[in-house]
Amino acid sequence: MPWQKIDHEFTHPQLDYNSKPNFQPCIKVSVFFKKIDSIDHDTFFGHWQTVHADLAVATHAFRDHIVRYAQHHQTPEMKDRAKSLGEGFLDYDGCAQLWVKTWDDWLAFYNSKEYAAALSDDCNRFMALPMTYMKTDPGLPSPGYQGLDNKAQTFGDARLFHNGIRLYLAWCDLIPGIEQKRGSVSHGGQHQA
């Protein structure tokens, strides 16, 4: 069935019917999960944003295949706010989003023995398994979003640069003022090799 366009006056001309979409050349894999019952939320979020993130980004599989990694922490307070809307909501404590250029990149990362060895035991320390996956094809970002190289324009959260990979953490403050980028570390804008 053909798309039925409506009569609409666009606020953003880059989104009008005649514009070429700004599709990003990546696949986004979202991984939803809950904490295990034996730990509190502070422990769950703290471990995930430090130890688990460090284990993940340290693997060659991550560096070779992951373009972008974001952690989305859903606190009990945020769950309550979502419930108050009267709509359905995703009842998870966290969502990890990983961007890859191709599905083969995802499979190489996901099936990596190095990745499994580094993270399997750690997942059992804080995540209730199994996890729930959602894969999305390249999509249209919001107005003003200029692609994978300009992600920092649209996020106000902490950033860790690891071998050119930006690690975004929502609802946390990871290594304030420190950015690592291809072998150099920046402390408040001053780069050190």
Structural features, described:
Helix content is 28%, strand content 27%. The chain is an alpha+beta fold and 193 residues long. It has a 6-stranded mixed β-sheet. It has a 3-stranded antiparallel β-sheet with strand order 7-8-9, with no helix packed on it. The longest helix has 17 residues, at 41-57. The radius of gyration is 19 Å and the shape is flat.
CATH architecture: 2-Layer Sandwich
Tally of separate domains = 1
Q: How large a portion of the residues is in β-strands, by DSSP E?
A: 25-35%
What string, H for helix and E for strand, traces the elements in order?
EHHEHEHHEEEEEE
> In what order do the strands lie side by side in the largest sheet?
4-1-3-2-6-5
Query: End-to-end distance, in Å?
Result: 57 Å
CATH class equals Alpha Beta
Tell me, rounded to a whole number, the average pLDDT.
Answer: 74
Q: Considering DSSP H and I runs of 4 or more, what fraction of the residues is helical?
A: 25-40%
Total helices: the number is 5
Estimated radius of gyration: 19 Å
Please identify the structural class as seen in this structure. Answer: alpha+beta
The coarse overall form would be flat
Q: Write down the CATH topology.
A: Alpha-Beta Plaits
Number of strands: 9
